[in-house]
Amino acid sequence: MGVITISRGSYSMGKEIAEKLAKKLDYNCISREILLKASEQFNVKEAKLIRALHDAPSFFDRFKYGKEKFSAFIHEVFLGHIRKDNVIYHGLAGH
After folding, report:
1. For the CA atoms of 40, 52, 76, 95, what is the dihedral angle to 10 degrees?
2. Chain centroid offset of residue 52 CA
3. Claim: this prediction has a pTM higher than 0.90
4. What angle do helix axes 33-42 and 46-54 make, rounded to 10 degrees?
């Protein structure tokens, strides 16, 4: 089972590196579609998922477990992809 995650910052060329490496290794390359699929599958706005990854939980989220719930949605979709083997992921929350 081959899974490679690439954490990237702005202008780091992480996307290009991931795509070239995926082509060379014949792996699937995934990124933002994880958030889009989680948003669609769990009927949650993409912005809420992104905030769950970036921001600290708000006062009310601490009681509703919003951050943990949204992170679990993303992880569910991500795990569905990596079960297929040979994946390169670049983007948020790959770790």
Report:
1. 130
2. 11
3. no
4. 120
